[in-house]
Structures are given as structure tokens and as C-alpha cells.
Design brief:
about 15% strand; single chain; L-fuculose-1-phosphate Aldolase; 14 helices; about 350 residues; alpha+beta; binds zinc ion; 7-stranded mixed β-sheet
Length: about 350
């Protein structure tokens, strides 16, 4: 079983399914849940890094009376999760562990494919999901963490009561997909069904699935001038690295939690990058830009080389997702309340912090 979940994690750990530290996988028996630790990637998961959790202990969460204060609530949940880790494991369990635990199936593979997010972020997502995947459970957007786990768990129980079986496909609005089954083969079959169905949809509608570039890569002088301008406005620590990419349409708002974590909710779009443009952006948004877009290119900004590269990578992914939502009625951005929850979320910032080590 452990070998199987490692194999599945690698099979669904490529950029077609997840980017950065996104997505997670688990397997379980009656007493233990083995799950990918927070801050690691699916592609590099090993037997040794899997976190083993005590399912009976974790189940106490289902009776937890949540604090009305979101910060307190997430802290309480984090503590309970930490005490659910068996002493023979180390690492911080994924915040989505109780959700994995709630599936009565051996394997759970959760990913955020752009192909699926074209549907989950589409205005017509709920109706189209029902048409394409009538057996899937669609869950309207919920803040990640404890709330997400409990809302999805509740919806799964209701679905089970109604149909006699727990769903194997759970589609989360503006987030991604959970696929669960008792065998590796069934996980593969379910993923193939979802991905092939959506691929055929985009193809029939002539909706391109690759990034649409709107110019050549910026030349060396432009890259160094833009980098210097960003660094002089943000400081050489915060903007130690700038990753340059040929221009494309960057997302016009917050798409999913991971897009916010890695690329921020909004990009700075301007013709001339200078201190005034960056200061105006900070004044309007309350944070410095991670993605800067000019007619010459798209620039990812970070304190590490990896952060800068991931900022561009998530802008690219977001650009593709926005493009795909054309098939499903256009883009539905996260609301200000949803966006602010992520921007203030300690768990995610911790994840990013350790995933960039
Ligand atoms: Zn997720």
C-alpha cells in the first residue's frame, strides 16, 4: 500500500496535475493514515517522508466545537493534527488530512490540474460538472483548512445517504479535484476519465490548453533594466531574484488558494517599472508584487530563485486556467473575503516558506 501511494504521488506529481507544493496524497488502513507532509512536493515524496497519523485521534476533530475566531480555530486544529502524528513520524501533516481521512477508500489523490480548474473556476462550473461527471460531488468554494474539511465531509455524508455510496470524485470550486478509490487501477481510470473528458471538451471548442504568448522573450538589456528597477524599489533582499518570461496575459484576479500563495492575488501591470508604479501597487493592494507584467515580458519576483520561478509558473498556470474558463462561461474570481482569508493564512505561508527551502 505504501509503495502504491508513492507510485501514485509520482504519477500525479508532474506539472500537468500540480505545481509547487500543491496537491496531496494519502493511503489508509483501519487505524493509520499515511499522508504527504505539508511543504513537500508529490514528485519527490518518499516512504520516509510520509506522515503516519492516528485516525482515532484525528477523529476528535469531527467533534471539535470551532472557535468563532479563524486564527484561533486554525491554531486549535493545527495542535490537534500535530498530536495525531505517530511518534515514529516527523513532518507537519497536510492541512487537508482530515478530508483524506473522511474518504472510506484506501487511496486518495488530490491535485490542482489547470485542465480541471478551467471547469472549477468557470462561471458555469457547477452545471457543467453535473453534465460531464454526474457521479461527482461538486463543492462550492470554501476557505481551506478546517472549514474546507468539515464542509466537504458533511457534503460527502449527505451524498452517501442519498446514493448509498461515498463519492470517488469530489470537485472543489476554484481549487481542484479529489479522486479516491480502493485500487491503484481505479485511481488511474478515474483520472483518465476526468482528464480525457475535459481535454475532448476544450479541443472540440478550439480552446487552447497551452500558454498563449503575445511576444518574444525579453532581451538581456530589458531583463537587467527591469530587474534593477524592481530591486531598487523593493530592496535587494525581497527582490533578490527576478525570473523573466516572454509576455502573456496574466490572471486578472485571484483564481485559487495556490495561485494566491505563489503569485499573489494581483499582478502589477505597467509599462514602465519604477518606484512610483511599485509604490502605487503596494498602496492599492497592501503587499508588494510577486508578478510584474510589461509589454516586454512577465517577471516573477522573490527572495529566492525558486520563489521567483514559482511566481511566474503560477502566473502561467493561471493564464491557462483563465483561457480554459472561456469554455465554461468565463472566469469566476475569488471574492474579497475568500482572497483575504488566504492572504492572512499562516498555514499556507508556512507551507510556502518550507517548500522553498
Ligand atoms: Zn488542494
Amino acid at each position: 500500500m505504501i509503495d502504491n501511494i508513492i507510485e501514485l504521488s509520482h504519477a500525479y506529481g508532474g506539472t500537468f496535475y500540480v505545481r509547487g507544493g500543491g496537491g496531496n496524497t494519502s493511503c489508509k488502513d483501519a487505524t493509520s493514515l499515511w499522508i504527504k507532509p505539508s511543504g513537500t512536493t508529490l514528485a519527490t515524496l518518499t516512504r520516509e517522508t510520509l506522515v503516519r497519523m492516528d485516525r482515532a485521534k484525528m477523529a476528535e476533530l469531527y467533534d471539535y466545537d470551532p472557535s468563532p475566531d479563524a486564527t484561533q480555530r486554525e491554531a486549535d486544529v493545527k495542535d490537534l493534527m500535530a498530536t495525531s502524528v505517530f511518534p515514529d513520524s516527523s513532518g507537519r501533516p497536510s492541512v487537508e488530512a482530515p478530508l483524506h481521512d473522511s474518504f472510506p477508500y484506501t487511496y486518495v489523490v488530490h491535485t490542482h490540474p489547470a485542465r480541471v480548474n478551467g471547469l472549477t473556476c468557470g462561471v458555469q462550473g457547477p452545471a457543467e460538472c453535473e453534465r460531464l461527471f454526474p457521479d461527482a460531488l461538486w463543492v462550492p468554494y470554501v476557505d481551506p483548512g478546517y472549514t474546507l474539511c468539515m464542509v466537504v465531509r458533511e457534503a460527502m455524508m449527505e451524498y452517501t445517504k442519498r446514493t448509498g455510496a461515498c463519492p470517488k470524485l469530489v470537485v472543489l470550486e476554484n481549487h481542484g479535484i479529489f479522486v479516491a478509490a480502493d485500487t491503484v487501477q481505479e485511481i488511474h481510470d478515474l483520472y483518465a476519465h476526468v482528464m480525457d473528458t475535459l481535454g475532448a471538451e476544450y479541443s472540440a471548442a478550439n480552446t487552447p490548453e497551452s500558454l498563449t504568448l503575445i511576444g518574444d522573450s525579453p532581451d538581456v538589456e530589458t531583463v537587467s533594466a527591469t530587474t534593477a528597477a524592481i530591486q531598487s524599489a523593493l530592496g535587494s533582499k525581497q527582490a533578490a531574484y527576478v525570473a523573466a518570461h516572454a509576455p502573456f496575459h496574466v490572471p486578472q484576479g485571484p483564481l485559487t488558494p495556490d495561485h494566491i500563495v505563489y503569485s499573489k492575488s494581483y499582478a502589477l501591470e505597467c509599462e514602465i517599472v519604477d518606484a512610483a508604479a511599485i509604490e502605487a501597487f503596494i498602496a492599492a493592494n497592501g503587499y508588494p508584487p510577486s508578478v510584474v507584467r510589461t509589454s516586454a515580458g512577465v517577471f516573477g519576483v522573490g527572495s529566492t530563485e525558486k520563489d521567483a520561478a514559482l511566481a511566474v509558473e503560477f502566473a502561467e498556470d493561471g493564464s491557462i486556467v483563465e483561457q480554459l474558463t472561456a469554455k465554461y462561461g468565463g472566469m469566476r474570481y475569488l471574492t474579497d473575503a475568500s482572497r483575504e482569508f488566504i492572504e492572512n493564512w499562516e498555514v499556507e505561508s508556512y507551507r510556502k516558506q518550507i517548500s522553498t527551502e
